[in-house]
Specification:
By secondary structure, this protein is α+β, with helices and mostly antiparallel strands. The chain has nine helices and twelve strands.
């Protein structure tokens, strides 16, 4: 009888262990599968955050704002890897244009670029494969409670708002004598001269100014490629200017030296490299919005910067000629000496490797406004009008307006949470 009892005890233990093992496998399945869902959710949320921030950056109330915002949002969102770092999102479908929507100030959906203040990106990643839960479903036959796949959704909303700091160009705009903020004596559409001489800028001009406070000319070139963290109250340096600054400046126009290859891939141009000088824009004002002046020579086109950007125009409008070309070239249009540069980014919406494929917002720039001691007191939004010649000569920028107003086309990077600083895209949901 004892022998039989021991066999029964061992049988009971085996059944208990089997049940506990199944129970533990269930918990492990939940932990692993929901852990996977958590990872995919995090990756997808990062993609939606990137999408919303990139889309919000383009919401400047201009007619093309929503089209640009959708394009920027899709590009930024889909650059992220989702589903355990799959660049194709495991073939389950990436972000599409219809998943990017826009809201007005009352947070109602709008398709009017003038009213659009918020960008919302929302995507459902379908069919995320389960691991042990799928096995439990097959074992138990209950695929409703233990499905083979799950869907994951993420959403993000961003807008443009004032920042505490900025990523401006290494320049300093000097207020006009007797002027007051926020315009400092300037008028929207006015051309302002950037002086090449070291410390030459006076009231009503622009001078080079190192954002780190140094006087090192090499630092100026480095800062042309991006430096963040500049704040109101910072003291700027007054450097000399080296000819090499023209390289970083002209990248933004899609103009490169032959040693920079592949040029637009390494150094993004603006959406358009079309340049404005007295040669092709005699009015010397209002290149950004218009109105269109009467141009000379007669062969020059008569469209403002918004139109050129919409067409992804190159420096010579629709070609890649630096010089020559029967009078239709970058040099003939601008009247500038660009002999050190030979490569021009491709124009047009169908060209590969040019302004359409690699273009970014690179010519509407934030410029610090400084007082007499070269201390930052405000920010202005300006348009880079012309590439730099070699040897260096004074060039112009167009004053668009204060960088911190809601309708400003200038959006920078920096720390959010300011009251009147330059606009930065910020997540709000």
């Amino acid at each position: 009888m004892r022998h039989i009892s021991r066999h029964r005890q061992r049988g009971a233990v085996i059944v208990t262990v089997a049940l506990l093992t199944l129970f533990l496998l269930g918990f492990i399945g939940f932990a692993l599968d929901f852990g996977k869902l958590f990872v995919v959710k995090g990756e997808l949320q990062t993609a939606m955050d990137s999408c919303a921030l990139a889309a919000a950056q383009e919401l400047n109330s201009l007619p093309t704002a929503i089209d640009r915002a959708r394009s920027a949002g899709m590009t930024a969102g889909n650059l992220n890897a989702v589903n355990f770092q799959s660049t194709t999102w495991s073939g389950k479908g990436q972000l599409v244009a219809t998943e990017i929507n826009f809201k007005n100030g009352s947070y109602n959906t709008t398709t009017n670029p003038v009213d659009a203040q918020y960008a919302q990106c929302q995507h459902v990643q379908p069919g995320v494969q389960m691991w042990l839960m799928q096995a439990l479903g097959a074992f138990s036959g209950d695929t409703a409670q233990f499905p083979n796949t799950r869907n994951v959704m993420a959403s993000a909303v961003a807008t443009r708002a004032s920042s505490q700091s900025s990523c401006p160009l290494p320049l300093a705009l000097k207020p006009k004598t007797g002027s007051t903020p926020p315009y400092w004596g300037y008028t929207a559409g006015e051309w302002v001269t950037l002086l090449m001489g070291a410390g030459a800028a006076t009231n009503g001009n622009i001078g080079w100014a190192n954002l780190d406070g140094s006087n090192n000319a090499a630092e100026t070139e480095a800062e042309m490629n991006g430096k963040c963290g500049t704040k109101v109250g910072d003291h700027l340096g007054t450097p000399g200017v080296q000819a090499s600054i023209a390289d970083a400046w002209n990248y933004r126009f899609g103009i490169y030296k032959p040693t920079v290859s592949p040029a637009p891939t390494n150094h993004n141009p603006d959406f358009s490299g079309y340049a404005y000088t007295a040669t092709n824009w005699p009015a010397q004002s209002n290149a950004y919005f218009g109105p269109t002046p009467t141009l000379t020579p007669a062969t020059a086109t008569s469209e403002n910067f918004q139109t050129k950007r919409a067409n992804f125009a190159s420096c010579d409008d629709d070609g890649t000629h630096m010089r020559g070309g029967g009078g239709h070239s970058c040099e003939s249009i601008t009247g500038l000496d660009l002999n050190s540069f030979q490569v021009v980014a491709e124009p047009g919406a169908t060209a590969l490797g040019g302004h359409h494929q690699y273009g970014r917002d690179r010519r509407t720039v934030v410029v610090p406004v400084v007082d007499g001691s070269n201390t930052v007191v405000d920010w202005s939004c300006m348009l880079m009008l012309q590439p730099l010649s070699i040897p260096l000569v004074d060039v112009q920028l167009e004053y668009i307006g204060p960088a911190g107003v809601a309708g400003s086309p200038c959006v920078t990077s920096g720390m959010p949470g300011g009251w009147s600083g330059p606009l930065v895209p910020q997540l709000v949901r």
